[in-house]
Write a structure and sequence with these properties.
CATH superfamily of the largest domain: MetI-like
Oligomer: single chain
Structural class: mainly alpha
Shape: flat
Low-confidence stretches: 1-10, 273-279
Strand content: under 5%
Distance between the termini: 33 Å
CATH topology of the largest domain: MetI-like fold
Radius of gyration: 24 Å
CATH class of the largest domain: Mainly Alpha
């Protein structure tokens, strides 16, 4: 009875040490990130105030913050953020809801993969902007046209990364499970899904980035509201500070969703063996 007790205490101590190391790494990551961004903004402000670059080509962080505050107080900024946020969220959620199950099925069933692979490869290589005239013809200039652009931008990286994750599942694990009489549903739930979760989350990260690009491309082509529309109008009127407000909002969107997915990935790390890179 003493050996299991020691083993359990040792395991608990190891878990505590791993969690402590992860917490220290997270704090170090936050500190270095904030420090680097602060130094970058300070250097940018100094360069802008010295007049080394004409204000027409680059604004300053304080001028950008003042423009953002002015737009927010007028209610214009919230309108653009709400429009782009709705298009982005609906498009990315639909892309994940379709791309992940389809990727799992195509990775698991070989013949389905053979059927879908030519279409996935062809559409993944086709620039989404080339499809914009057809999308506008089909869906008009309203919300659903932009949602469709975001969906097409995010769907393919999510689906193809998920397929790659399923195809990297260890054959030895599958053989062991089969030898113990495990059925397809049990093998898929206990081996395949946990093994390819890192790939799914990586695909979602890629999809978020592509989805943001899709939002801006759709709004630049034809829109009456949104961050892309704001950037387009401000650029045509040489309002550099407002252009940077739109760019900063896109960066904040990307950082926010990337952090959400990173935290989700940390929560499911217990499903796989710990590695040094995860600390």
């Amino acid at each position: 009875m003493t050996v299991p007790g020691r083993q359990a205490r040792g395991t608990g101590a190891d878990d505590t040490a791993i969690e402590g190391a992860r917490g220290a790494a997270s704090r170090e990551r936050l500190l270095l990130g904030v420090l680097s961004v602060g130094l970058f903004l300070a250097g940018w402000e100094i360069v802008a105030r010295t007049g080394a670059i004409h204000p027409l080509f680059i604004s300053s962080p304080t001028a950008i913050a003042a423009a953002a505050r002015r737009l927010w107080q007028s209610g214009e900024l919230s309108r653009h953020v709400a429009a782009s946020g709705a298009e982005f969220l609906v498009g990315c959620l639909l892309a994940a809801a379709v791309g992940v199950p389809l990727g799992l099925a195509a990775g698991w069933y070989r013949r389905l993969n053979y059927v879908l692979d030519p279409f996935l490869a062809a559409f993944y290589a086709t620039p989404r902007i080339a499809l914009l005239p057809l999308i506008i013809l089909w869906a008009g200039l309203g919300l659903w046209a932009k949602v469709l652009v975001v969906f097409l931008s995010a769907f393919f990286p999510i689906c193809m990364t998920t397929i790659g994750g399923v195809r990297t599942v260890s054959a030895a694990h599958l053989e062991v499970a089969r030898s113990f009489g495990a059925g397809d549903a049990h093998v898929f739930r206990t081996i395949v899904l946990p093994s390819c979760l890192p790939f799914i989350l990586a695909g979602l990260r890629l999809g978020v980035g592509r989805g943001l690009v899709g939002v801006i491309v759709a709004e630049l082509y034809g829109a009456s509201a949104g961050i892309g529309f704001l950037i387009n109008i401000a650029g045509s009127m040489f309002q550099t500070d407002v252009v940077f407000v739109g760019i900063a909002l896109l960066a904040v969107f990307g950082l926010l969703f990337n952090e959400i997915l990173r935290r989700a990935e940390r929560r499911v790390e217990r499903w796989r063996p710990p590695v040094g890179a995860a600390l």
